[in-house]
Amino acid sequence: MPGPLFDTLCGANLAQRPVWLMRQAGRYLPEYRALRADKGGFLELVYDSAAACEITLQPVRRFGFDGAILFSDILIVPHAIGQTLEFLAGEGPRLSPRLLDAALDSLSAVPQRLDTIYATVAQVRAALGPQTTLLGFAGSPWTVATYMVAGEGSRDQHETRELAYRDPPAFQAIIDAISAVTIDYLSGQIAAGAEAVQLFDSWSGSLAPREFERWVIAPNARIVAALADRHPGVPVIGFPKGAGEKLPAYARETGVAAVGIDETIDPLWAAAALPEGLPVQGNLDPLLLLAGGSELESGVRAVLDAFADRPHVFNLGHGIGQFTPIAHVEALLEVVRAWRAP
Question: What is the set of domains in the chain, with CATH numbers?
Fold first, then answer.
């Protein structure tokens, strides 16, 4: 039977809130660090289904989270589209050729690069209990495009934003290509056992309102609609980090089942501004979790109280930090699990 996370994403306002944390599988866990030291680099782990399955399960075993989030990376999609993907020590991901220097149609698709991810999903689903919801994910087209165009991450995505202004048809072709592969990729994850999926738009906050409509809302709406046709009843969580006051329009126009809220948004404002009854996810500041103490407890309660009248998945406003103490996660969970909706 479905677990509390799945039920909440489908609109149930449960008295006890389900909880999972973005980047819950990763570097803050000693068991992850031990496995990575044994297996090698990040990309090697992603493409080793047994290792990726183990990493996905580690935080669920330790903390009993209500959701398991697939261990992978948003840049698997451009890798499947045909770019070369590397993770350089101390520098982060690199894609080549970057689309500032090469045409999209010069890339040769390698869709089999997605097969290992599907195998990971299937292994995780087989290992999870029925009450733990398995979440798949992908990057949203705008965020993925910023990496494909520039070849790496950037502080303000200026090269990609400039390209979108200078040559909208060329940039639209990039967005369309990413969207098409993302639909198939998330559909493959669902077919392999994912019960819900999340679209990460980590850089959506860099866009002006008109561009946000065109490059964030429109392609995400296309993805959500296609998945609804292929997999009715599978919730899609949209997470447009930095959307700010554009969040209600995103929630209304994309058709997502639930919306993730980053730590910069006042939860009381979000509770009032978002469509009535729409499930929300978030939005504790990851740095508050890192800091811990009495402020952490009061901050957790403030988020829970703000969303008491609507379905709410407790989560962070972004990913858990590498140096977050295990004891602070345990303290957070103690507060969340003791709280009840009035």
Answer: 4-338 (3.20.20.210)
